[in-house]
Amino acid sequence: MQDLAPILCHARVCRILDANLDRAREGLRVIEEWCRLGCEDAELTATCKELRQTLAGYHTPELRSARQTDHDPGTALTHPQERDRQTLQDVLTANFARVQEALRVIEEYAKLTHADLSAAAKTLRYRVYILEQALSPQSRQGRLRRLHHARLYLVTSPSDRLLERVEAALKGGLRLVQYRDKTNDDQTRLKIAQQLQALCQRYGALFLVNDRVDIAVGANADGVHLGQTDLPIALARQILGGDRLVGCSTTNPQELERALQEGADYVGVGPVFATPTKPGKAAVGFDYLQYARHHCSIPQFAIGGIDASTIGEVIAAGATHVAVVRAIMDAADPQQATQDLLQHLHEGNQP
Question: Euclidean distance between the first and final Cα of the chain, in Å?
């Protein structure tokens, strides 16, 4: 560097800063589009936009004028990994790396010529790390976001074609599955839970286990669903870890209030109609469903006797999220049944 004339050195540093500001802003735009149109998350979208605009403010005419694309040897270089994106997560991971690397380059080179840009790049780089964590499907934020968008929830029932039926529903667009099994021995339950977890992971769906926190841990599930007589929510979360989800069944305002106070991530609301899945439990009807809608800020899944013939009434009563058992598990075509239920939910919850 000592052999370079100061003017030449300054020009080349500006060229490096220009290239990496472009790279960081481009990567952020790719991430922003997923936050906006994929996640439909206004807060994350606003964060991406703010980061881009902050960088744009430092992308001055001085830096832009240093650009010499026709003399850049990097334009002809590529790598097979740059062309290979197998999953959405591959796209996001690649662009987060692109942004973080560019910000690090900016931070170091701007120390020579633009100290304020260097300091800003350091701050922005740590904010991008936080954003990446929020978008990770395995983080608490990522799981909560996926839970919010999963409007249809399948609770399984015993079946000799369980995996086949669940996979058909996943192909139909299902993104939330609970494994409920009251009859098999623990070793069998654990094996099935592990198979379902792998299946759900392949389709990008959340997988929860009914009641059994130990099975949920053993199967690396995304969380657990608890009844009123199961382990306390706080203890379940302590065992599972803070990134996992804990849901809770509720049948009245008192149980709802307790679930909220104990920190449930979502609640089941029902049974809306009488159902053989809950023998001896009276239907709560629409009154409690509407109460939950107005007094609960976390997702509420209406459950109990809901199928294609009744889902319209449930949506009209205020439900935005619905859990079903027989409507999919007993369907002649689980994939089509899932698509039909999702279509009902989509049409019924249009603004």
Answer: 61
